[in-house]
Amino acid sequence: MELTLPRQGLMLALSSPSGAGKSTIARALLERDPHITMSVSCTTRPPRLGEMDGRDYHFIGIDLFLEMMEGGQFLEHARVFDNFYGTPRGPVGDTLASGRDVLLDIDWQGTQQLCLNVRADLVTVFILPPSMEELEQRLRTRAQDGDEMDHWFEYDYILLNTEVERSVTRVQAILDSERLKRDRQIGMAAFVNRLRGR
Ligand SMILES: Nc1nc2c(ncn2[C@@H]2O[C@H](COP(=O)(O)OP(=O)(O)OP(=O)(O)O)[C@@H](O)[C@H]2O)c(=O)[nH]1
Ligand SMILES: [Mg+2]
User: Fold this and answer.
1) Alpha-carbon distance 86 to 72, whole Å?
2) Domains annotated on the chain, with CATH
3) Atom 1 in ligand 1: residue holding the nearest Cα
4) Which amino acid residue places its CA nearest to atom 7 of ligand 1?
5) In whole numbers, what is the pLDDT of the chain averaged over residues?
6) Which residues surround ligand 2, an ion (CB under 5 A)?
7) Could you give the CA distance from residue 131 to residue 109 in angstroms, rounded to a whole number?
8) N or C: which end of the chain has fewer CB within 10 A?
9) Atom of ligand 1 lying closest to residue 57 CA
10) Model pTM?
11) Tens digit of pLDDT for each residue in 90-139?
12) pLDDT tens digits, residue range 10-28?
């Protein structure tokens, strides 16, 4: 049986230009790894067909969004296209404290804020398409997607998503390695003491 020690959870932020495959990778990772959960953002954009409130997003009005913003209830927030998006602080804190990890599907603006405020608990991954043709094929490329791409330089890890399966394996490898970082293994000192009979 595997021995699990208490550890400090981490936040894995995934960003990419639209259509580079971020949500496919995120979904596969969530299925594969039982110790990471998705952060459900608040947004002022209307739900799309098939989206469920509380699962895909918390769909809220602009008034409530601003109230939450002013109340400091977001870990980060940003305006993307014509809508507001924000990561609720509470659930992320609870998950990290319980030694589990949180997956965040957020843009570069949100990632910058997390880098400033919660760097120690943050791991950032940027996903790039292998070519612009690929991106255009998968999409409806939007004007702001070029802007998003300019921010690849601010991320810890950069993935070229040539093949989804390989990309998921790589994100899993990043996650596994980051979990093993000494600072996150908060149960290790006690374990070593026990090991040495102290
Ligand atoms: N900063 C920030 N960005 C968010 C948050 N939630 C979602 N986003 C980003 O907002 C953008 C638009 O998301 P959606 O409205 O769901 O649209 P989408 O079709 O999923 O867009 P893409 O993921 O870019 O293809 C994406 O880049 C998301 O990563 C959040 O809480 N904070
Ligand atoms: Mg998306």
Assistant:
1) 11
2) 11-195 (3.40.50.300)
3) 110
4) 106
5) 94
6) 23
7) 24
8) N
9) 6
10) 0.95
11) 999 999 999 999 999 999 999 999 999 999 999 999 999 988 877 777 66
12) 999 999 998 899 999 999 9
